[in-house]
Write a structure and sequence with these properties.
Blueprint lengths: L22 H32 L4 H8 L2 H34 L13 H8 L3 H9 L3 E5 L5 E6 L9 H11 L1
Antiparallel strand pairs: 1-2
Amino acid sequence: MEKSGPRPSARPLIIERPDLQSPPQRVVSTGLTLFFWALWAYLWLPVLALLGWVFGATRFYEEMVVNHGDQTLLEVLGGYAIAITLLAGSLVCWALYNYFRFRGNERRAARPRVSAAQVAAQAAVEPGALQRWQKARVLYVRHDAAGRIAAVDVGPSSSAPVAADDVAEALDTIR
């Protein structure tokens, strides 16, 4: 007897590798999927109609069928279609304008690298203390009312412990 499970030497089925499908196969597959989902929804229509009748959804029938609300709906949808077309057209025109204006002209540049000394100067701390803090795994940083660093405590699981003297020295630099 043959063992169950995947066949190691067999080529994978197309259903397992949709990237191997050709474009016509994708179109047919998508079309069949949509058709069968629509069929599934159609089969549920009697149940939905029954639920609508139970919960008193007869107002829709009166407005759309008896009072010919479908004509008004089509008029409103036409206005919506015009508005959507104008908005989409304006966005396409703006995109084309920018494309033709800026093509081949790359003005963006990478931000310059910041050194540890610059960061230390900005934070008003000693560069050596900052480098030790960067090597620590856990830091507890307290800030004063102005948002400046007031105290730095190194957590217990630090790979590079910072001595209390270094913290005191850094705090003296801050003050």
